Amino acid sequence: MTLVLFSLGVYTAATGSGLACQAQWPLCSDQLIPALTINPDFIEWFHRVWAMVTGFLIIGVAGWTWFGSGFERRTKLAATLAVAILPLQITVGAITVTLSGLVPGGYTVSTHAAHLIVALAIFTLLGLATIWGGGRGNVRLLRAAAGVAVAGIVASAVFSRAVPFLTYAPPAQAAFYITGLAGHLGLVATVAYATEATRNRYDGLDAGTAATVRALAAGSMAALVGTLLLGRDLVLYTATWQGINLAALGVAVALAAGAAWTLRGTESMRDGSVPIGGD
Q1: Residue 199 CA, distance from chain mean position
Q2: Strands (DSSP E) along the chain, which ranges?
Q3: What is the pTM of this model?
Q4: Which of 61, 70, 114, 157 is the most exposed place for a label (fewest CB within 10 A)?
Q5: 137 near 196, Cβ under 8 Å?
Q6: By the 8 A CB rule, do 89 and 119 touch?
Q7: Model confidence pLDDT, tens digit, residues 182-198
Q8: End-to-end CA distance of the chain
């Protein structure tokens, strides 16, 4: 739900629908529910409804970690932090769509950047809560996470504004963030599982290899976040910025692929297996 919400938000902004609803919030053009046809008012309203439902689900997940059974402290902390910064995201979103309304000049680069960064933080925290809440990791999960990371980043390159392959229209922008965030989630999982492997050795994976994988994934994540930020109109997108964007995308792909390559062969030893030795 949060992944789709992120993409909906990008699509809403890219189509200019964020300025619809006569810059009103929570009403939309003096209505609670606008005309249910594809128009800027409906796009903005639908984004708000999806955000509201997702917000309640985020609160529910946090409550589940506290009142459920078997969840570790780190899982509770990640889910609770996601809820703690949710009001900030809602506030920034409300400011963004009230140009010359509640907050004059709300539709600015700074509010767009804050909206994107806080949304990414919430998405990352929810990812960690899901990963940690799933129990102990293993080599197979670590390899799968690295594979998802590589696939997501490569797919995002197809829609990225850094690569002149497709017109960076609103649908392409939405697709870029869906694929890019999938890659980001894969990297988050890779770092989480690799960190766990350095502390509690996975069978078939030594601590040194796990540390290398973690470093490569963390570097890839930093570069990918850079491309996600440059995917919005936060800077005057000149040829220089396009070059920087392309370089960051290349680094993200290379480091993620390096992490996946480092894990090659670890599948040959299943969890719990012990190498047979002898004279």
Answers
A1: 26
A2: none
A3: 0.86
A4: 70
A5: yes
A6: yes
A7: 999 999 999 999 998 88
A8: 56
